[in-house]
Design a protein that fits this description.
The protein has about 300 residues and is an all-beta fold. The protein has two domains: about 140 residues, Methylamine Dehydrogenase, Chain H (7 Propeller); about 120 residues, Neuraminidase (6 Propeller), CATH 2.120.10.10. Helix content is about 0%, strand content about 45%. A hairpin with a 7-residue loop joins strand 23 and strand 24.
């Protein structure tokens, strides 16, 4: 995500603005075993081993903004971002090496996922789609869209189904580990920033103008859900409590559902813009965004 406020061209673009002095813009985070590793502006990588209470900065070796991070297990992970760069760690995020640069350095990589074994996917602006099946030793570029729409986020259901959310309502599903992708539709063309698979098999898609959609048939059909605002929604998470989930982003409010996404209410106002939510191994919710890393308000975690 860029660090200057600009139009919403990329999922990783500067919807947040420049981070204040003392606050580092963080855009994504992932678990490496019990450790949390977060990435952000100007190549920043931070690591916590105490559930996000304290952080140490790790040398990434790059100055480009990093938009996304993923771990296969407690040791092997990848980070990606502007300049179409991909970094790799083999020691749980303590050290990083440059692994790959895409053909189009003007198209940032916006998300990356370690699917299984050595299978890694990376997607981004203008339809960028890179795939490795040998832990990143080799990468292949594919074109899975007819138009160069931005691909914003990859997610995965418990049964292994993969989901891609993107610009102009782009929504794709793969049931064969990314060998093929099937285009789906919510029925509207607003850009989507993610699909949240729920433990009961249902799906929540979210994106621009505060729009949320719900599917109960594995993405074949979608119902628009009424929401309490119109802000950009950039991330969502399901909590341990039955049917409880949160979506948030640039809206600066937390929208909470306690009925599996059928209805949402705004419960927390005036929060900093948030790019990612993460549950620690102990079940505490941590936020990442324009004010760096912070514990979620107490009544949002474990509820």
């Amino acid at each position: 995500m860029r660090s200057l406020a600009a139009c919403l061209i990329f999922f990783c673009a500067a919807v947040f603005g420049t981070a204040a002095v003392g606050d580092s813009l963080l855009l994504d985070a992932a678990l490496a075993g019990d450790a949390i590793v977060a990435v952000g502006e100007r190549g920043l990588i931070q690591r916590s081993t105490d559930g996000g209470d304290t952080w140490s900065t790790v040398d990434s070796g790059v100055s480009r903004t990093l938009c996304a991070i993923t771990f296969l297990d407690q040791r092997n992970g990848w980070a990606a971002g502007h300049g179409a760069i991909i970094l790799r760690t083999e020691d749980g995020g303590n050290s990083w090496q440059h692994q790959f640069t895409g053909d189009d350095e003007e198209s940032p990589i916006l998300d990356i996922m370690a699917v299984s074994g050595g299978h890694v996917l990376a997607v981004g602006a203008f339809g960028a789609y890179y795939e490795s099946r040998n832990s990143g030793a080799d990468w292949e570029q594919h074109f899975i869209l007819e138009e160069d729409m931005h691909l914003n986020r990859i997610s995965r259901s418990r049964d292994g189904t993969l989901w891609l959310a993107g610009e102009f309502g782009a929504l794709l599903r793969s049931r064969d580990s990314a060998k093929t992708w099937q285009p789906l539709s919510t029925g509207e063309d607003g850009s989507l920033y993610g699909v949240l698979p729920l433990t009961n098999g249902n799906l929540i898609a979210y994106g621009l103008r505060g729009r949320v959609y719900r599917s109960t048939d594995d993405g074949e059909s979608w119902t628009r859900v009424e929401t309490p605002g119109t802000g950009l929604l950039m991330t969502g998470i399901e909590l341990a409590s039955a049917n409880t989930l949160i979506v948030t982003g640039q809206a600066r409010t937390w929208w909470v559902s306690r009925d599996g996404g059928q209805t949402f209410t705004a419960t927390i106002d005036d929060t900093p813009a948030i790019a990612e939510l993460l549950l620690t191994p102990s079940g505490h919710l941590v936020t990442f965004g324009e004010s760096g890393s912070n514990p979620a308000p107490s009544h949002s975690s474990k509820n």
